[in-house]
Amino acid sequence: MYKDFIHKTPIQIRFKDVDKQGHVNNANHITYLETGRTNFFADVLGRDVDWDETGILLVRTEIDYKDLIFLEDEVCVYTKVTKLGTKSFEMSNYILKMNKGETIECAFGKSTFVCFNYHTRNSIPIPETWREKLVR
User: Fold this and answer.
1) Burial class of residue 70 in the structure, from the number of CB atoms within 10 Å of its CB (0-12 exposed, 13-18 middle, 19+ buried)
2) C-alpha neighbours within 13 Å on the C-beta side of residue 123
3) What is the pTM of this model?
4) Of 19, 39, 107, 126, which has the fewest Cβ atoms less than 10 A away?
5) CA-to-CA distance for 13 and 30, rounded, in angstroms?
6) Domains of the chain and any CATH numbers
7) pLDDT digits 0-9 by tens, 5-15
């Protein structure tokens, strides 16, 4: 459940996100998860990461859709690392909206990443400095 997730990112719903049926199109949920992850990495790993040399590759994403999101909804993404391997890790996200003081789960997503050296084009172990911060 999202209540043990600490990292929260507010999401601005854009007019272009809404489809003909009047709700946010499911393809936008991937962007919302990415926004949550990007903010998570900036806040947890800091700005000292040399993303041009050592980075991550997204290798899997899955989403369970639970409720519709509309243009004027107040939406946020909760993010955390849920598994750490040697070279890969998994992140989980909840997309939530507030409706009359009630928190409603709109989607749950999981993504798997592999650490990667862009110069050698090979997977690498999760850097120790990252591991320490991700565990915290």
Assistant:
1) middle
2) 12
3) 0.91
4) 19
5) 13
6) 2-135 (3.10.129.10)
7) 999 999 999 99
